[in-house]
Amino acid sequence: MNETLWRWGFVQHHQKALIMVDVQKAFEHEKWGERNNLDAEKNISRLLTFWREKGWTVIHIQHTSDQPHSLFHPANEGHSFKEIAKPLDEETVIQKKVNSSFIGTNLEEQLRSNEIDTVVIAGLTTPHCVSTTTRMSGNLGFDTYLISDATAAFGLADQTGTYYDPETIHRLSLATLHDEFATVLTTEQLITNWASKSS
């Protein structure tokens, strides 16, 4: 059996949490430019439905800015969660002010106090807050899984002005994370292989 398949095919008797990173209306603004994976929200919705049916922990991360002009300022519509990812009343919402969901928050404390050792990450955007959160999750010792088709990227230019399309940014970001900080899976892979798990 493929070693990677073995790793994520037999995750049993571990407490799991789904961390939804910054699934907010701010990313609908035209300022970001072109985006890849327009199905990300559909897959995020599938993940949430699956997770909730299992009764597992869902934690929503909400990026928050102190700058009034920012799309992520609480007074602006962009701060709100997208409709497909609105938290349920019983689900935890953690606000952050930097890229990592672990910096300046009690996320690590919440995971450890609930004896959660397996973390699944999805959300926006791949090279920024999703990547930073994934790296820290892996470094902190959590068994970390990143869902490749439940996240997305925008195009970016480097320091020389060379532009990289969003699909390239997305794929390279995933490549830097897989097997180093996390196991990268698709939504279908996770749901199919974890469907029979009860914990």
UniProtKB/TrEMBL annotation:
Keyword Ion transport among UniProt keywords: no
Source organism, top-level taxon: Bacteria
Annotated SUPFAM superfamilies: Isochorismatase-like hydrolases
Top enzyme category: hydrolase
EC code: 3.-.-.-
Keywords: Hydrolase
MF terms (GO), sorted A to Z: hydrolase activity
Domain Isochorismatase-like span(s) in chain numbering: 17-189
Pfam families: Isochorismatase
Family membership noted in the UniProt record: Belongs to the isochorismatase family.
Protein name: Cysteine hydrolase family protein
Organism: Bacillus sp. BS1807G30
